[in-house]
């Protein structure tokens, strides 16, 4: 099977390559909930109330893909290349290495990150050698943008929201790791997720990129060791429970935001 990893965010020169491996299913085996644009306002409200009431039935045990939960059209328009570079181009951003423990941090201007590092990832480059913009940034400098974002309404008892905003090139991603529960929404592009329950640790090396893991490890996994997986697109939110192992792969140049419940 071939999976096309493309350079699609904003208007940029064509640049894409194809990564091939076998066995990746197209269907998402995770629980799905959809809110349709054709719903009447009262129907939509009733459906969201029902989902809120049911949230605790899966919040501690099951990843869920939710479509149409929020309307972030305005937020998406503010994430255009022109607007982000005009507003934030000279701001400093902190980049992390795209490995499991993300020890190394590098500061540079957002404009330099977009111009110099936002490029397709080679599967031969280690995650520990890849710089990635996600979290670790001065949220006060991005407050005017993040205040427009409409997060999922659900919270777990005793938790509050913490946002992490990210932009990354095609083929990049973070290898397997775990943390507390939260939501991840794609604003531009597509993000592939690979998930394992807390008691089923995946076979991986913490410095191996997700792309090289797919090329070198994934094809040889026996069926009982295969991860749950799904591709999240704009308008979709993935809920991940506490301590679930997960790795991500950006299939396109992607903008995404996570809401951690801590």
TrEMBL record:
One example GO MF annotation: cis-regulatory region sequence-specific DNA binding
Pfam families on file: Cupin_8
Domain of life, source organism: Eukaryota
Domain named JmjC: residues: 140-262
GO cellular component, one term: nucleus
Protein name as catalogued: Jumonji domain containing 8
Organism whose genome encodes this protein: Hippocampus comes
């Amino acid at each position: 099977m071939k999976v096309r990893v493309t350079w699609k965010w904003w208007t940029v020169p064509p640049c894409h390559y194809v990564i091939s491996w076998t066995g990746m299913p197209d269907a998402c085996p995770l629980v799905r909930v959809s809110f349709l644009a054709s719903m009447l306002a009262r129907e939509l409200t009733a459906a969201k109330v029902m989902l809120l009431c049911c949230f605790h039935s899966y919040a501690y045990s099951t990843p869920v893909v939710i479509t149409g939960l929020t309307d972030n059209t305005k937020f998406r328009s503010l994430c255009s290349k022109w607007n982000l570079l005009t507003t934030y181009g000279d701001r400093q951003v902190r980049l992390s290495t795209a490995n499991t423990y993300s020890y190394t941090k590098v500061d540079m201007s957002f404009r330099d990150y977009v111009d110099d590092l936002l490029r397709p990832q080679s599967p031969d480059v280690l995650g520990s050698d890849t710089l990635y913009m996600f979290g670790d940034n001065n949220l006060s400098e991005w407050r005017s943008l993040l205040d427009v974002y409409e997060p999922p309404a659900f919270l777990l008892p005793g938790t509050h929201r913490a946002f992490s905003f990210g932009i990354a090139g095609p083929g990049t991603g973070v290898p397997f790791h775990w943390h507390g529960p939260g939501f991840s929404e794609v604003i531009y592009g597509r993000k592939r997720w690979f998930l394992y329950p807390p008691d089923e640790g995946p076979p991986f090396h913490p410095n191996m990129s997700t792309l090289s893991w797919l090329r070198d490890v994934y094809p040889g996994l026996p069926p009982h060791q295969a991860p749950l997986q799904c591709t999240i697109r704009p308008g979709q939110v993935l809920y991940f429970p506490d301590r679930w192992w997960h790795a991500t792969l950006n299939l396109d140049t992607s903008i995404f935001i996570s809401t951690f419940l801590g």
